[in-house]
Amino acid sequence: MGKQTQALVQQIDAACRSVNDLAAATEEMFSAHPDAEIITSFPGLSVMSGARVLAEVSDDRARFADARALKAYAGVAPVTQASGVAMS
What we know:
Structural class: mainly alpha
Helix content: 55-70%
Order of helices and strands: HHHH
Strand content: under 5%
Mean pLDDT: 88
Largest sheet: none
Number of helices: 4
Number of strands: 0
Low-confidence stretches: none
Radius of gyration: 21 Å
């Protein structure tokens, strides 16, 4: 049991080192991006969460026509519908 536990701990240790290496590489690459300062200026966005946002929405500024299109993509744009009209 001791040898098995030791082997499992070594596997977890290797996985943790890999996660740390990936996080360091992500921070380095994101910090070099021209929009990194803008993205991390939003409240609640750190380097890692900013990198995730950038990966999700892309850095193609022509991808969304305006802020409303980005909000719709994110699923936070309000959907308006007339009262009494059935949606199909």
